[in-house]
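Hey,

Quick one before I head out. I ran the complex with adenosine-5'-triphosphate overnight. Inputs first:
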Amino acid sequence: MIYRDIGQAILLFCEAARQWPMVWRDRARIREQLHEIGNASLFMACLLALFIGGVLALQTGPVMSERGVSSFIGGMVGLAMCKELAPVMMAVLIAGRIGSAMAAEIGSMQAYQEIDALRTMNIDPVRYLVLPRLVAITVGLPLLVVFAVLIGWMGGAMVCISNPQISITYSGYLNSLKAMVQVGDVANGLIKAVVFAIVIGTVSCHQGLTTLGGPRGVGRSVTKAVVNSIILILVLDYVLTRVLLNL
Amino acid sequence: MNTAAAQTVSRGVGVTVRGLCKSLAGQPVLHEVDLTVEPGEVFVIMGPSGSGKSVLLRHIIGLMEPDTGEVLIAGESIQSPGVRDRHHMAMVFQSGALLNSLTLAENAGLYLREHAMKPEAEIADIVARALAAVGLTGQEEKLPGELSGGMRKRAAIARALVMEPQLLLYDEPTSELDPLMAATVSREIVALQRRLGVTSVVVSHDRELAFGIAHRMAIILDGRIRCVGRPAEVRALQDPQVREFLDATFRHH
Ligand SMILES: Nc1ncnc2c1ncn2[C@@H]1O[C@H](COP(=O)(O)OP(=O)(O)OP(=O)(O)O)[C@@H](O)[C@H]1O
Ligand SMILES: [Mg+2]
């Protein structure tokens, strides 16, 4: 089942990519979608990032201090945040908040024959519905990841200076972070974010478009959109890490 | 691509349905349906609830693919690529099928706007006129969810009128309307046909509407076309099942 869904989703992505030249005409709808992503998720994303950065420092800080390698804490938190945790956690958050909304909205349009109406008007649902969402999420998720990385670093710093078991100063934390995190590491995280965004957008829109039946069908599509997105995010995260490691 | 078609809009296109069979969820719904609608004709399809009228319309507009048989629009299969660019078609869905996230005015103007067929000011003008024709002036900024069923249906009709198609399918255009509004809508259907020579296929149970506007009509029973002919011919038929359907009455006293 999931293989067929993935295959169809890839076809949907190709179809949307083919419509790419039309993207300028959809700028109003893209802006609308971006607004939604920002509005719905920015605060949550920041809160989540703050605590992830904090808990990273809290888990590793005392152990590293004990063994006398506390000067690496900043770099450790910095790398983990930008290469791994910010992209994955933000992607999971967006799959839950935005992917579900996309599947629900497009799914109910399918259930209420709105998509049929678009077809009879010779308006391609892929161009009208999928393309703007895909573009918006592909722009929006990396932006959120940038915020999450910065705030996660701050969260780590806050824990380091306030916890007596962690023997590192604020400037020590920052210096370690600066020394160990390269621009390439941040880019690495952003590449992941772009891939995850495309996965979430495509999978969610595909589930919406293939909704069968009424409200129950919409519910099923939403669940599948979120679950499939998260599974794919975690699997692809490993694959991407492996690939990007050798670059 | 659509501007070229826009200039040829004034001629309706013919529809041919040949040997159409369709099963849905394992149940046969349409059996060997054959039908020809001439260009510029008002063709009415009547039949009891569940007889397959909506399914037939969905085949004609290309939303469903036949199991066997074919649907031809001006001699071209509806499933062949690009037919919708060459022939303008529109459908008024039984449920209206307005886009719930757009206002009435946006819904009605969607087609012209998406295909960038007219300047914005002109679109606003056309939309206002179409909404006025179905008695919805002043409701432009409402969302479909804020309207009654009949108002939604009328908005759907306005959306189809705005498209000025060559083939226009109506699924129960008057089923949720009061008699006065039903008369207005039937007048609009006929006016559009006279003005632009649009081919209209109207599905309805409304006997008055059917006999009032039809050039020819068909009666469909259990997924089979039972008879086709001019209204006078159908009225004169002696087929007991057709008679039963056409003569049903509310008078029980
Ligand atoms: N998507 C579908 N899946 C399965 N069966 C369907 C589907 N659509 C319609 N049917 C079946 O096809 C038959 C004909 O349905 P249709 O909607 O065409 O009836 P209708 O003639 O339009 O009736 P009404 O006048 O009540 O609108 C019904 O028995 C219905 O159960
Ligand atoms: Mg019907």
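Residues 28-245 of chain A form one domain.

Talk tomorrow,
K.
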